[in-house]
């Protein structure tokens, strides 16, 4: 089966850390790739055991992954990636589709480190990919067509929502969705602690706060509503919600959140330049 068909027969991972494992698990659970058709490489057995537990094949040879798989996801640390690409470059062919999840390594850099006309894409997932509810963006290199993009998007939707974006949006996605996981956790924690202050047991409060975030997110996505519309639907004149919203506005929640995304995005851009 060709790599640009409905689905690749084999998918390779160079690097076997937490994000690589999350993507592999999503592919397997969704039935998009069989476990025995996934091959992962890493220098030691430390992380490979997670792939082995899923029923995947493993190796210590990065070149073997390229020789066995046409679609290969590079999930190494960014500072290691150039050396890894130099190592595998001799076995890269025109049939390969190479995908980098390394933050801060641009498409132009990837294309410079690989043979001419190599098909390269960048993907930026976030931590909820581990529970198949990730927010993922991808951007294509100069030699990638729509069929390769659709194939990768089809596969990554096993791990959550996947959108194709211009490369300029990658750092913004880091600030919004990568770092945003921590921002949402902070809000969820504060929401629950408000309930604890009013007398609810901590465990129960945290469970209800998390479920409230989950349910609200699902409504926004399924209904396609602007958040302001849903917020308005919850507010009744003189009711509890408008009093609570007034307290949030007084505390500067909206401005603080916008500033947090801005700060995280600026830091991502700074790290990318370095």
Task: Furnish the topology, listing elements before pairings.
Blueprint: E1 11-14, H1 18-29, E2 38-41, H2 45-54, E3 57-59, H3 62-68, E4 71-74, H4 81-88, E5 97-100, H5 107-113, E6 119-124, E7 134-140, H6 146-156, E8 160-164, H7 170-178, H8 180-197, H9 202-223, H10 227-234, H11 240-251, H12 253-273
Parallel strand pairs: 1-2, 1-4, 2-3, 4-5, 5-6, 7-8
Antiparallel strand pairs: 6-7
Helix pairs in contact: 1-2, 7-12, 8-9
Domain Pyrroline-5-carboxylate reductase dimerisation: 167-271
Domain Pyrroline-5-carboxylate reductase catalytic N-terminal: 10-104
EC number: 1.5.1.2
Structure description:
With 274 residues, the protein is of the alpha/beta class. The protein is 53% helix and 14% strand. It contains twelve helices and eight strands. Strands 3-2-1-4-5-6-7-8 form an eight-stranded mixed sheet, with helices on both faces. The radius of gyration is 21 Å and the shape is elongated. Mean pLDDT is 93; it is low at 1-6.
Class by alpha and beta content: alpha/beta
Order of helices and strands: EHEHEHEHEHEEHEHHHHHH
Count of helical regions: 12
Measure the end-to-end span.
40 Å
- Strand arrangement within the widest β-sheet reads 3-2-1-4-5-6-7-8
Low-confidence spans: 1-6
Give the biggest beta sheet.
8 strands, mixed
What do the pLDDT scores average to? 93
- The residue fraction in helices comes out at 40-55%
Choose one word for the global shape: elongated
**What fraction strand?**
5-15%
Radius of gyration: 21 Å
Number of strands: 8
């Amino acid at each position: 089966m060709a790599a640009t068909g409905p689905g690749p027969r084999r998918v390779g991972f160079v690097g076997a850390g937490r994000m690589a494992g999350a993507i592999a698990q999503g592919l397997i659970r969704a039935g998009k790739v069989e476990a025995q058709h996934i091959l992962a490489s890493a220098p030691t057995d430390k992380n490979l055991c997670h792939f082995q537990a899923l029923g995947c094949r493993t190796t210590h040879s990065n070149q073997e992954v390229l020789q066995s798989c046409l679609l290969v996801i590079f999930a190494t640390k960014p500072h290691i990636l150039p050396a890894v690409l130099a190592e595998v470059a001799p076995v890269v062919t025109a049939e390969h589709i190479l995908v980098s999840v390394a933050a801060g390594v641009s498409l132009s850099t990837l294309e410079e480190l690989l043979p001419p006309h190599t098909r390269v894409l960048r993907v930026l997932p976030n931590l909820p990919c581990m529970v198949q509810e990730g927010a993922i963006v991808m951007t294509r290199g100069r030699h990638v067509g729509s069929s390769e993009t659709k194939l990768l998007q089809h596969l990554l939707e096993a791990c959550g929502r996947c959108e194709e974006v211009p490369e300029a949006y990658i750092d913004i996605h880091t600030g919004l969705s990568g770092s945003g996981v921590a921002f949402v956790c902070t809000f969820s924690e504060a929401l629950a602690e408000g309930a604890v202050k009013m007398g609810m047991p901590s465990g129960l409060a945290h469970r209800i706060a998390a479920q409230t975030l989950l349910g609200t997110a699902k409504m926004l996505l399924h209904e396609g509503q602007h958040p302001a519309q849903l917020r308005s639907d919850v507010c009744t004149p003189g009711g509890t919600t408008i009093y609570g919203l007034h307290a949030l506005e007084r505390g500067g929640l909206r401005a603080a959140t916008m500033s947090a995304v801005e700060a995280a995005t600026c830091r991502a851009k700074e790290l990318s330049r370095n």
